[in-house]
Automatic annotation (TrEMBL):
Its main location: membrane. Keywords: Antibiotic resistance, ATP-binding, Cell membrane, Membrane, Nucleotide-binding, Translocase, Transport. Transmembrane segments: none annotated. One of its GO terms (molecular function) is ATP binding. This is ATP-binding cassette domain-containing protein. Pfam families: ABC_tran (PF00005), DrrA1-3_C (PF13732). The keyword Aminoacyl-tRNA synthetase does not apply. It comes from the Bacteria. It comes from Saccharopolyspora erythraea.
Length: 339
């Protein structure tokens, strides 16, 4: 896009990037968001990752013009978040943590109502509604009351609702919290399709896996501050990448295995004699290949091999020196299942 072109009506032609510097929000004496910097290049997804209470929603609410920052500045597209809040509102869409649809009316009526609120003439409003129902796989459910939708359908309807005005920048605040894995995957596909069409996305999540699936870059927040940023694989690498576990057929082979790992200069591996298990941190794929080759060449009797990714708990432990504790017990279950 020609960044020097004069502004033209309609959101798509604007420079849809988000640039945030030193953003602050205080509630009473507490700085709940304490100097946050973010950059989202146009057409990319930024994952804002952090435990409950980190300040993610507060950040999103400021960037949506719902609450006023106490410090710092931000530009959304060409516009200043505070001084040009009206123009900013026309550029953005927001899907909250909890679906905010009217349960008493159908999905189709919900979308139509929003289209009319956005001043679309009747005919164009209906056309846009049909397009969105199709896009978010809601055609069959369109006439049923939204209150009868499953969790996944509700989130898709909410996402469709935030897309009625064709926003250039979309904020998704924990869009899949509480969804089953299949609905989560469906929602991820919808988000990917929006990004393919050029939408810029700020996604908050408590799940490393979600950031990994969708985000081009990740910012980790804790207690109002940015504590790490990079691609998800860079963050994983900082906590040791994957872990390869090898179980030998009997304790007597553990020493040999440990000697061979030392000989190939594997770092920080741990031997668990009781379970005949050796855990080897793997930082990149070539290390994984080397260890597997060594195992094959060694002819040691092996009874099991697996790899696991570091959990979000381990990421937070490493980055913040304290364990990550989701307040929501269901969230813990999801974390255990995912990681
Ligand atoms: N309106 C408010 N008044 C006072 N404290 C608030 C308000 N909104 C959020 N907080 C507090 O700010 C902190 C960050 O909250 P939030 O931004 O919702 O975090 P997250 O979305 O990362 O879970 C929490 O400790 C929360 O209790
Ligand atoms: Mg939140």
């Amino acid at each position: 896009m020609d960044r020097n072109a004069p502004p033209v009506a309609g959101p798509r032609v604007m420079t849809a990037a988000v640039q945030v510097e030193g953003l602050v929000k205080r509630f009473g004496e507490r700085r709940v968001v304490d100097g946050v910097d973010l950059t989202i290049p146009e057409g990319t997804v930024l994952g804002l990752l952090g435990p409950n209470g980190a300040g993610k929603t507060t950040t999103v609410r400021m960037l949506s013009t719902l609450i006023r920052p106490d410090g710092g500045r931000a530009r959304i597209g060409r516009y200043d978040l505070v001084k040009q809040a009206n123009q900013v509102r026309r550029l953005i869409g927001l899907t909250g943590q909890y679906a905010s649809v009217d349960e008493g009316i159908s999905g189709r009526e919900n979308l139509y109502m929003i289209a009319r609120l956005l001043d679309l003439p009747r005919k164009r409003a209906w056309a846009r509604v049909d397009e969105l129902l199709e896009q978010f796989d809601l055609v069959e459910a369109a006439s049923r009351p939204a209150g009868k939708y499953s969790g996944g359908m509700r989130r898709r309807l909410d996402l469709a609702a935030s897309m009625v005005g064709d926003p250039a920048v979309l904020y998704l605040d924990e869009p899949t919290t509480g969804l089953d894995p299949r609905s989560r995957n469906n929602l991820w596909d919808s988000v990917r399709a929006l990004v393919d069409e050029g939408t810029t996305v700020l996604l908050t999540t408590q799940y490393m896996e979600e950031a990994e699936a969708l985000a081009d870059s990740v910012v980790v927040m804790d207690q109002g501050r940015v504590i790490a940023s990079g691609t998800s694989s860079e963050l994983r690498a900082r906590v040791g990448g994957q872990v390869l576990r090898v179980r030998t057929a009997g304790q007597e082979h553990l020493d040999q295995l440990a000697r061979r790992l030392t000989a190939m200069r594997a770092r920080n591996f741990r031997v668990d004699a009781e379970n005949s298990l050796v855990s080897v941190p793997i930082v990149n794929e070539s290390e994984l290949t080397e260890v597997i080759h060594m195992l094959a060449a060694s002819r040691l009797p092996i009874s099991g091999v697996d790899t696991h990714l570091p959990s979000l708990d381990e990421v937070f432990l490493t980055l913040t020196d304290k364990p990550h504790r989701p307040a929501d017990p269901d969230a813990t279950v999801v974390l255990r299942r995912v990681f």
